[in-house]
Write the structure tokens for this entry.
Amino acid sequence: MSWLRTLGKTGLQVSALGLGTVKLGRDREVKYPAAYTLPDDPSAARLLDTARELGINLLDTAPAYGSSEQRLGRLLAGQRQHWLLCSKVGEEFIDGQSRFDFSPEHTRRSVQRSLRRLGTEVLDIVLVHSDGNDLDIIERMGTLQALAQLKMEGLVRAIGISTKTVAGGLAAARVCDVVMLTYNPQYREELPVLDACAELGTGTLIKKVLGSGHLAGSDEQGSRPGLQACMDLAFSHPGTGAAIVGTINRAHLQANVEAARRALG
Ligand SMILES: NC(=O)c1ccc[n+]([C@@H]2O[C@H](COP(=O)([O-])OP(=O)(O)OC[C@H]3O[C@@H](n4cnc5c(N)ncnc54)[C@H](OP(=O)(O)O)[C@@H]3O)[C@@H](O)[C@H]2O)c1
């Protein structure tokens, strides 16, 4: 399987591995195994350079990832054309707390703010950052309709939702360009969503491929599946578009790319 892949029907050619950027902008209320400090600008710039050298062209960010969008906007100045940018709407992280607003008005304001922060005229992918009420969002909130309008206006190339439920993922597969879902060796419940996306030709982004880091690396008991098993599972499915893996460690990034390339065969 090839490293560059067509993401569903979006026409976007994404690298098999995308870089998640939570840890570039937020160090509070996260579920990672170890505490960390946000990398300074030179380290973050080296991380992005390494990602690019390794063939990664997809960055995943969100307003809810603290200063991630603003920092990427600064760090990517002059190299926008090398990247596909995925951001989100719906969740805000303010004073250490998540707040949600899925209204069409907020959706438009949020996309306009992401464009400003990221220093770009178009966002390649915008996903609704679900609070868990996926079906409500898809069927009643008007969020996807607002995103569809922004897509018609040329401000966004592809739209979708980052889901938290199987029912939501299945509904999203029918109405979105892209579905972001969780799939790893210890959480396979959303497999039917991947199946549905493969059948319908909907693009997918897999999040938490390493179980937010809890499944990576080896331990003495051998109780963690390890990096390769996580990548093998993510890329074993024909519905997988890209795996979004978060890291601020360049050695981990390199190991992740090598494992993903091995999984692709
Ligand atoms: N839309 C949503 O609702 C949502 C939710 C969660 C995540 N996401 C997106 O998906 C991305 C990935 O999810 P995630 O960050 O929760 O989980 P993840 O990618 O499964 O795990 C990230 C964690 O794994 C560690 N890690 C990465 N490579 C490693 C390696 N080779 N060996 C050991 N540890 C390694 C990272 O630490 P180091 O920095 O030390 O490498 C980090 O703490 C996020 O960054 C975000 O962009 C979206």
The radius of gyration is 17 Å. The chain has a mean pLDDT of 96. DSSP finds ten helices and twelve strands in the chain.
